[in-house]
Design a protein that fits this description.
With 122 residues, this protein is mainly α. Helix content is 65%, strand content 0%. It has four helices and no strands. The longest helix is centred in the middle third of the chain and has 28 residues.
């Protein structure tokens, strides 16, 4: 409730399920959850870069890239059907994990095919 006007904050918004904010009612006192969502996505991204970098060294970059791509597609589709904000956030963190992983491996794989003088173009 907005204490200065005595108006219920949620009644001032036209919340539809067409947007993330509308789907989970991320307005008023719950606005902070949008920032948390982005923070956890990139935390997953950082963990994915480290994990997939090690996997790429052990399994091979191409296999690791395909594994990451498949997991990224799966977690991306899974995030579309999450019923609550917290399950959505957990799956989006996994999307970040797999995105950071396969993209980093893809970058290194591309750089390995070029002469060192062209690596700055990758």
């Amino acid at each position: 409730e907005n204490s200065t006007l005595g108006i219920d904050c949620r009644n001032t918004f036209n919340l539809t399920s067409d947007t993330l904010t509308g789907e989970f009612a991320l307005v008023c006192e719950d606005r902070w959850k949008l920032g948390l969502l982005g923070t956890l996505f990139f935390l997953g991204w950082m963990m994915g870069v480290v994990t997939f970098g090690n996997l790429g060294d052990r399994l091979g970059r191409r296999k690791t890239m395909y594994l990451g791509l498949g997991l990224n597609a799966l977690t991306g589709m899974l995030s579309a059907v999450m019923p609550t904000f917290w399950t959505y956030t957990a799956v989006r963190m996994l999307v970040g994990f797999t995105s950071g992983g396969w993209q980093m491996v893809n970058y290194v794989l591309a750089a390995e095919f070029l002469r060192p003088s062209y690596n700055s173009y990758v």
